[in-house]
Amino acid sequence: MTLTKLDIDRNINTLRVNSKEFSTIDNTKLISMLEESIRNIKDVAYYWATVSADNKGVTNTTAEGEEWLGGPFATVFGIQYYIDTLKDLNKPLNEELFNNKLNTYKVFPNNFLERIFFPFISADIKFGKNIKFKEIEEFRGFAMRYKHEPSISLILGAGNVSCIPLLDALYHLVTKRSVVYIKLNPVNEYLLPVYEKVFSNFISMGYMVITKGSLEESKYMTEHNGIDHIHLTGSDETYENIVYGKKLTEDEKKQKSLNKINNKSFSSELGNVTPIIVHPGNWSNGELKFQARKIVTAKLNNGGFNCISAQIVLLPDKWKHTEKLIKYVKYYMNKVDDRLSYYPNSLNVLTNLEKDKNYERLNDKSCATPHLSREIKAYSKYETSEIWGTSIYFKKIEYDNDLDYANRVIDYCNNTLWGNLGATVLFKKYNKKANEPIKNLYINDLKYGTVAINEWSAIGFIIPTLPWGGYPGNKDNDIQSGQDFVHNSMFFESPLNGIVYSKFRMSNLIDPLWFVTNKKGKKVFKNLTYFQIDKSFVNFIKLALSAVI
After folding, report:
1. How many Cβ atoms are within 10 Å of 108's Cβ, its own excluded?
2. How far apart are CA 96 and CA 8, in angstroms?
3. φ, ψ for residue 542, nearest 5 deg
């Protein structure tokens, strides 16, 4: 059905009529509505994951597990954390979880089950310098301390990961008490009936509208006088066209300010040239293979169509393991099953890249989607442009010693690479006392929304307590990875970024479930989703058996 301008006007009018009521909704009622949404997810979870897998061409493959993890599971996980915070807002924070040296507060894991299903993973929120524990307590719960004016937030949905539009909407619903208009991305608009079921209670109360829409209709929405705030998960080019009416030149980005054609309040998450920093150390052959599989996962998860997909691997020049690690990355890039390039024009981009003699194809020529690699030596456009798909780049960094290497890669990431959404550091023995100054250097000086030590920074997206977005301070006319953040389920007012930690190598026997090389992900993430919805003994047994059999 075609969406007309009159339809949009009526939708916005419905939201406006109910926005005042929702801006003052009490926590008890909101909790009840969120709990109903979880029950709704139980009804559609199977269809949700399988229809997503079908449209991405991964039905009955290991990759189908990604659609459970990045769809119904992540949504339930996020909703439950919002519910827990709303119930426990008056519960004091634990001062023992605050690190005075790094100005961080530990926010994950929070229970025994999270330690089991996310083994060896922990996460902190980092705050600005000189902030004390008592101050972060004051910063918590901002959503409840301010009087909210009636408002309508337009959520421009992402087309790659199915939970994103819902989690973006939830943040605005819960923390800002804003009614929400979700406009789906054409890539995954087939999920409209799923989203409508999940939020059927909010829709029936006039607190939410979800529609499809063409580029023309999206333009009408973004310019509509009834919309108070716009949130975009997408590209910097889309942002620039909405705010400035055109793609900005490099000279325009360098100006102190630029005249806008759209002055609405705006938040956004816009991608990244994602670096994987390999810190030198004495790695075993098994560790080299494990980290290679981690890098390949960060590249090929969801077919490479992630804003946080690994793009550039930074390696120490003349490190004894550099060439071997590159060899193993290429080897596993070849081993991962071929996938459909489901994003419009993405296959054309890859086939055009392949024509360049400097590129190496890593998988069989019979595969529909090429897996490509190349080494970057001099300044390159691949450092400043996000490549949407299955190409990976290697950059060797000269250095004198470990500290010098850390300083050089930090400078390169902060000042050469485009974007600041997330960065990963692979650092053996990072928690050893002698290495603490270098570890702290990465944590303090990498200017990214998520910094992950020994884990792909995308894990920061899955953990609801962490803020998700670009590093604070991006200019309107040089937006980089965007402004503001979502998720942040503990309602901290002024987080700087999220820090994720993981063990350097988790197991000698099996890869983590989210690795593209793990064959159990589909069954486990399906059962984990249903267990997250209903923590019954029966569901726990199903989950445990799927993990070991």
Report:
1. 24
2. 50
3. -60, -45
DSSP assigned state of 498: E
**By residue range, what is the domain housing residue 361?**
274-501
398-454: per-residue pLDDT in tens?
999 999 999 999 999 999 999 999 999 999 999 999 999 999 999 999 999 999 999
Structural domain count, the chain? 1
Q: How far apart are CA 192 and CA 155, in angstroms?
A: 14
Q: What is the pLDDT of residues 95-118, one digit of tens each?
A: 999 999 999 999 999 998 899 889
Burial degree of 90 (CB within 10 A; 0-12, 13-18, 19+):
exposed
CATH number of the domain bearing residue 403: 3.40.309.10
CB 222 within 8 A of CB 230: yes
- Between CA 363 and CA 332 the distance in angstroms is 9
279 in a structural domain: yes
Do the domain assignments include residue 161?
Answer: no
Contacts of 247 (CB under 8 A, 6+ apart): 237, 240, 241
The whole-model pTM stands at: 0.95
Q: At what angle do helices 285-300 and 322-335 cross, to 10 degrees?
A: 50
Query: In the sheet where 208-211 sits, what is the strand order?
Result: 208-211, 179-183, 152-156, 229-233, 265-269
**Of the candidates 171, 160, 150, 144, the residue with the CA atom closest to the CA atom of residue 231:** 171
| Nearest CA-CA partner of 178 in 165, 187, 169 | 169
